[in-house]
Amino acid sequence: xxxxxxxxxxxxxxxxxxxxxxxxxxxxxxxxxxxxxxxxxxxxxxxxxxxxxxxxxxxxxxxxxxxxxxxxxxxxxxxxxxxxxxxxxxxxxxxxxxxxxxxxxxx
Length: 107
Description:
By secondary structure, the protein is an all-alpha fold. It contains six helices and no strands. The two termini are about 30 Å apart.
């Protein structure tokens, strides 16, 4: 009950924190890097859409354990798109110069 009360009291829980704003500021200082990452994810997603991608989840990734992720062309492409976008977001999060604590909160 106490946990529920604490969660309800946090009015700003859906607003981005200062680490998010610092990251955006860092990315704004490096538009070339952002454009490069964007071009990479766009090319990856084009391969996913056309069925040319060879992306696969890591062997131990239990989220994709069900055989349907490999057998179904639709699920396989959803998985590949998810992995491409995850790599893109991770690359953007690693790009700005953030203090360790801010970086960990974003990750």
